[in-house]
Amino acid sequence: MIDIRDATKKYDSGPPALAGVTLTVAAGECLAVLGHSGSGKSTLLNLIAGLDRPSSGSVLVDGTRVDRLGEAGSARFRRASIGMVFQFFNLLDDLTVLDNILVPAQLAGMGRAEARRRAGDLLGSLGIDRHAKSYPQRLSGGERQRVAVARALMNRPALLLADEPTGALDSRSAADVRQLLLDLNAEGQTVLLVTHDVELAASTAHRTIELVDGAVARDVAGGAVRGSAPLADNTVGGPAGAVR
């Protein structure tokens, strides 16, 4: 699903935001990316989503060399292949829940009847069908994040990118979102999760990588990297982030 080779991103004369990252993610995998602020997490996410290009190296996602796409091509790629969930939901407050979920389908040119059927299915499966005619500001944080997930899944993306999806939630809502991500991944959805929350990573991911100063410092199967404790399998010493 994702094949990044020796990707470096430089913005100025200082240290690179990403430094020679090599990373592969299989279809159906759930990968968590951990790291402190400034470690390169957001840059990595932007390269995968085609929102930015590497200074060198290659980025292949769902069979597409996204580093070679122009602006219009990148937009089409995201619309077809990428669903994105953000920390602060990014819902449109003047649209109902249903209309928020329908936006990606409208942009993709999906037929109205098909779009409404798909939205109805998502509303039901995510347990928010009773809120279809409500406005986002009337919902709890956990409910708004479910709406955001439904919107992200509207066009059946190959890859779901979740950027700090529990960062703005209370503990109970965060637990709901963790379970939601688990359920989606169990159904075959490929998920790449960027987070500071080691509990979220430990409870949802098949594999966790830690970025330090723009490079993959550690790559572990199963639970999250915790503090500075030694890792059970492959502290990276060769090509960064290679799948076992």
* Integer average pLDDT: 88
> pLDDT below 50 for ≥5 consecutive residues: which ranges?
226-244
Terminal CA distance reads 15 Å
Bin the helical content.
25-40%
| Biggest sheet character | 7 strands, mixed
What is the SS-derived class?
Answer: alpha/beta
Q: How would you describe this structure to a colleague?
A:
By secondary structure, the chain is α/β, with parallel strands linked by helices. Helix content is 33%, strand content 24%. It has 7 helices and 11 strands. The strands form 2 sheets. A 7-stranded mixed β-sheet has the order 6-7-8-3-9-10-11, with helices on both faces. β7, α6 and β8 form a beta-alpha-beta unit. The longest helix has 16 residues, at 171-186. The relative contact order is 0.19. The model is unreliable at 226-244 (pLDDT under 50).
